[in-house]
Amino acid sequence: MWPEHHVVAEDLERICAAPEVPWQSLHGRTVLVTGATGMIGSALTRALLWYSLTHDAGIRVLAVVRDVARAEQAFASPLAAAAPLTFVAGDVRSFPTPREPVDHVVHGASVTSSRDFVTRPVETIRTAVGGTERVLELARDKGTTSVAYLSSMEVYGSPDGSRRITESTFDTLDPMQVRSSYPESKRMAEALCAAYATEYGVPATVVRLAQTFGPGFALDDARVFVQFARSALEGRDIVLHTAGESEQCYLYTADAVTAVLTVLLAGEVGQAYNAGNETTYCSVRAMAELVASRLGPVPVEVRVDAGDAGTRGYAPTRKLPLDTSRLRALGWSPAVGLEDMYRRMVAAG
């Protein structure tokens, strides 16, 4: 999605004007992005290309994708023909090494479906661990200037909310629970980043993202926050498949992009950074109530039907009040709150 919609145009302009992002250091450089057709990867790729085109910055993007035809459709627009974008076809675990230099890497390729965490746990683990090793080996071979791995707040396990979650606050994970395929493999991928930084000098950093959404989601997407929006817009009750007691922060897509770029270009090698909007902290139930009362043409009800919750791959109940002070110390701050996240997602959908 290019800036045909005013919401997307506003987001691109704000990202490209973000004072915390040292854009000058990207001029004339090549950035490799894995997971480039995913939500964050595509938003990041568009921002890099938009900045390059509007600032004559000569930034080139290598987008690692599994399906080139799908990627060409996703990035199609009159502007795309002029954009310095090259697709690298292949699985993240085995994609071919580009011939050109690679100055920076953003590694965002990941299994993201909660249902897949319980129905395809082996693939979930292999994608995270094998893909991260492939990316780090590429960075090592190319002498890359910086690498940012996109991780998740799920690495913290299931804390009870009694303390703020800094980058060193971890709760237990049970590796024998099949859904742990996702957070455990994310932890292992982070450990690989730290290991490559220490042993081989690969300049890797980690961004632990809160649940992120914004423009770019189709309203038939299966993710919970999209289901909430779809129900409200259609005047149907929002149905929770758990009691909705988990509490966490959320993050708007454009804010996630500025967070990733800030860590990529200004973060400390071998460090992890929490990225979330602390003002959005609430329970799943409270978020559903907000959407039910304010998003649609008329208010709807929120009710619980937990009949098939076990097959959906939902995380256990957790309370994750993220502390983002380490990232804020680099000058970053989020700009869009929870209600506006929904309104902007729906407006541009």
From TrEMBL:
Domain NAD-dependent epimerase/dehydratase: start-end pairs: 31-276
Pfam family name, one: Epimerase
Chain ranges passing through the membrane: none
PANTHER family, A to Z: BIFUNCTIONAL POLYMYXIN RESISTANCE PROTEIN ARNA (PTHR43245)
Name the record gives this protein: Nucleotide sugar dehydratase
Source organism phylogeny: Bacteria, Bacillati, Actinomycetota, Actinomycetes, Micrococcales
